[in-house]
Amino acid sequence: MDLIDEKILRELGRDGRLSNLDLAERIGLSPSATSRRVSELERSGVIRGYRAVIDRDQVGQGFLAYITVGLSEHNKASQKGFEAAMETAFEVKECHNIAGAFEYLLRVEAADLNAYKRFHTEVLGTVPNVASITSYIVMESPKDLRG
Fold it and tell me: How far is 129 from 98, CA to CA, in rounded Å?
């Protein structure tokens, strides 16, 4: 990784649909050199993929919450069971095993508060070894750079 690679990542992070020609102009390299560098970043796994940024309101998923989850048992089997349940939960867009007072941090998208309540009660509330659930409802996101 060098400064040129960092420029490539910054520009693609802003707009993953940039044409190679536009990207080359922005970073100050020839199109062929830019293409080679992007290919190498993809091949090496630095660039793992490209995503569309979806307007959650437009697709009926405008309600966003972050949730901390504490488990009652702190062992590998409990973790694997929880992670498997979150893998199949449509509303869970991110699941992170974290250090601190809780074991997991979730990003959950739902249509509205009622849909979130259903998820909270019928999905999350039925997973074995879940001891605590704390919800943080997102009111607004003045900065969100996730792809």
Answer: 17
How far apart are alpha carbons 112 and 60 in whole angstroms?
A: 8
What order of strands is seen across the sheet that includes strand 92-97?
Answer: 92-97, 104-110, 63-71, 130-137
Q: Is residue 39 part of a domain?
A: yes
Q: What is the pLDDT of residues 53-109, one digit of tens each?
A: 888 888 878 999 999 999 999 999 999 999 999 999 999 999 999 999 999 999 999
User: 38 and 65: one domain?
Assistant: no
Beta strands in 4-138 (DSSP E): 63-71, 92-97, 104-110, 130-137
| Shared-domain flag, residues 129 and 61 | yes
Residue 146 lies in a domain: no
pTM surpassing 0.90?
Answer: no
